[in-house]
Amino acid sequence: MLFRGLDLAVGPGELLLVEGPNGAGKTTLLRVLCGLREPEAGEVRWAGLPLRRAGAAFRASVVYVGHAPGLKDDLTALENLAVAAALGGRAPAIDPREALARVGLGERAHVRAGALSAGQRRRLGLARLLVRPAPLWVLDEPLSAVDRAGAALVAELLRDHLGAGGLAVVTSHAPLGVPEDRVRALRLGAAAAAEAAA
Amino acid sequence: MSGGAAGAFAALVRRDLLLAWRRRGDRLVPLAFFVMVTALFPLGVSPERAVLATLAPGVVWVGAVLATLLGMDTLFRSDLEDGTLEQMLLSPLPAPVLVLAKVLAHWLVTGLPLVLAGPVLAGALHLPAPAQPVLVAGLLLGTPALSLVGAVGASLTVGLRRGGMLLPVLLLPLYVPVLTFGSGAVAAAAAGLPAAGHLYALGAILALAATLAPWAAAAGLRISVA
């Protein structure tokens, strides 16, 4: 049992910051929230509907950037992004080249993803957020491996997203640079620690 | 199929063909395996023309089944490892359509070369010429069915670390109908008998696999990703 008794709602313009020590279940919670995993008990709702019933309408509303980059090493940055955009089912919101320029990979569009550095791969993963606009962003450690400029980019993307009424659920060990009044923190691991003590 | 789904289908097929092209060395392994397995029979059983002609239908088909099996484990494995599989399942488009795109690309890369190589190998085993078109027709109907059924097995074992060992045990029994009708068609044609019945059965298996397997594989993938 990783966590129990979670009851929370995230509204437009809000960011839920999931905190906790390693192994507290942050990634698991994120995967439950975007429907990749079923909770053992309880239910996740999107716009009032359980995820299973919301189905494709929910999946059109969420972009997940997880630990695994979701990139093919043998494809170029641009090819990777084009496939990600096609999986969105709609025409990309902005041209993939433009998205690459925005995340600082404009010069690397035709480099294979496998030849990019860890930080650049992270940025390429984040470019998905631009080509596939969705009200809910679920980001697992978006600041891992990125440099200072990359962290500023994440902060800017998140501020724009929240300002436009978007929702975000994010795990991070470093400050995100988002206005405090938009952030709600959820601390995992307390339940597990209490259980271990009992 | 809506425009978005057709676009994503095409994008996935193109992506997997491109990936196969950039790793073309790996993709030749099933074909090389097919050639070698069939070449073992003249060496191991008998080089006699009459013996080989009798064995040819079964040998070519067993070779095709084993070669398909060899490539099956890779269908979803790299997608699971690099996270593109979870992105696929998070797409608002129907997962079975996306699975079908992957199976189609996989068949074009591993199945189609077997269809093309089949008659050459059968000729080397002295299969009578009139049976050749039946062999090609059977392989054309049968190998996509093998890929589709294989995708269901691969979807279930992709999450297991030793899935590659389990997969053949899981799939070989399911491949038996395709094998019997496929080699049965060739044997019938070689004996001068009508082979249409066998081919119809293969067509029915393919239709059934094409309708059911993508859904089953999509469900299997959801379990494996969780």
Please give a quick description of this structure.
The complex is a heterodimer of chains A (198) and B (226). Chain A is of the alpha/beta class and 198 residues long.
General description of the model:
The complex is a heterodimer of chains A (198) and B (226). By secondary structure, chain A is α/β, with parallel strands linked by helices. Chain A has a domain at 1-61 and 134-198: 3-Layer(aba) Sandwich (Rossmann fold), CATH 3.40.50. Chain A is built from seven helices and seven strands; from the N terminus they run βαββαβαααβαββα. In chain A, the strands form two sheets. In chain A, strands 4-5-6-1-7 form a five-stranded parallel β-sheet, with helices on both faces. A two-stranded antiparallel ribbon of chain A has the order 2-3. In chain A, α6 (148-163) links the parallel β5 and β6 (167-171). In chain A, α3 packs parallel to α5. The longest helix of chain A is centred in the last third of the chain and has 16 residues, at 148-163. Chain A starts with 14 loop residues before the first strand and ends with a helix. Chain B is mainly α. Chain B has one domain. Chain B contains ten helices and no strands. In chain B, α1 (3-22) crosses α7 (95-124), α4 (49-72) runs parallel beside α8 and α9 (163-190) packs antiparallel against α10. The radius of gyration of chain B is 18 Å and the shape is elongated. The chains are: A alpha/beta (198), B mainly alpha (226).
Give the topology.
The complex is a heterodimer of chains A (198) and B (226).
Chain A: E1 15-19, H1 26-33, E2 45-46, E3 49-50, H2 51-59, E4 62-65, H3 77-87, H4 96-102, H5 118-131, E5 136-140, H6 148-163, E6 167-171, E7 183-187, H7 190-197
Parallel strand pairs in A: 1-6, 1-7, 4-5, 5-6
Antiparallel strand pairs in A: 2-3
Chain B: H1 3-22, H2 24-27, H3 29-44, H4 49-72, H5 74-82, H6 84-89, H7 95-124, H8 132-157, H9 163-190, H10 196-225
Helix pairs in contact in B: 1-7, 3-4, 3-7, 4-7, 4-8, 4-9, 7-8, 7-10, 8-9, 8-10, 9-10
